[in-house]
Amino acid sequence: MFAAGEGCLEMASLVADGDDDQEQGRRSAANAAMDRYADGDDSAFGALYDELGPRLYRFVLRQTRNPNAAEDIVQQTMMQIHCARDRFRRGADVLPWAFAIARRLHIDVVRRRKHQELLTDDGESHISARAPVTDAPDEMLYGKQLEAAVIAALARVPESQRVAFMLVRVEGLSVIEAAEVIGISVSAMKVRAHRAYEAMREALGESEEQRVP
Q1: What is the CATH topology of the domain spanning 17-125?
Q2: Helix locations, the chain, DSSP H
């Protein structure tokens, strides 16, 4: 039996775009598109953008909470990928590289705009907790409550833990890949991911306890 909050956290932390097989298929498609693009096939850019764009946007948006800023960073990320495509090592995994570029660009934006307010509350949700698809009104209501709880809990944890949670639990990167994106040791990433998981589990426990049978 799950501890309070553990069940809904397990549900919420699944990879947003599908199960493991689907995730592997998407990563393989992104890698294949990047290899083609690196070899000079300009037509591969569309496929590469389709695979990377939505994931980069979702990741950056959780850091900025500003759709326009997130879109700008995604565009800059894809531009940097374009400029560096001839140096890309064929057969490498493009996803951690793309996330690392996006994260560096976000840090640069924060530094350039340190006297401005970057974080805005647009009142919209751009990631969803993976709740079962159902027509039952009570289940639909619980799904919305769970999604709101996930977003609120993510907003409360420190940024370093939030990034770790997003990369590992939402975007499906391995701990090693996530550590490379952030530029920290694997052991440090494990600590951040664990602390984020525990903070999220505690926060989501309130949502689980409040659910009406």
Answers
A1: Rna Polymerase Sigma Factor; Chain: A (1.10.1740)
A2: 6-12, 20-38, 44-64, 67-83, 94-112, 137-156, 159-165, 175-182, 186-210
Q: What's the mean per-residue pLDDT of the chain?
A: 76
What does the block give as tokens for 70?
Answer: 């997130």
- In angstroms, the Cα distances linking 101 to 39, 56, 91 are 20, 10, 18
Each residue's pLDDT tens digit, 40-68: 999 999 999 999 999 999 999 888 888 99
Is the per-residue pLDDT at 152 higher than 80?
no
User: What is the Cα gyration radius of the chain?
Assistant: 18
pTM here is 0.62
What CATH code would you report for 1-16+127-213? 1.10.10.10
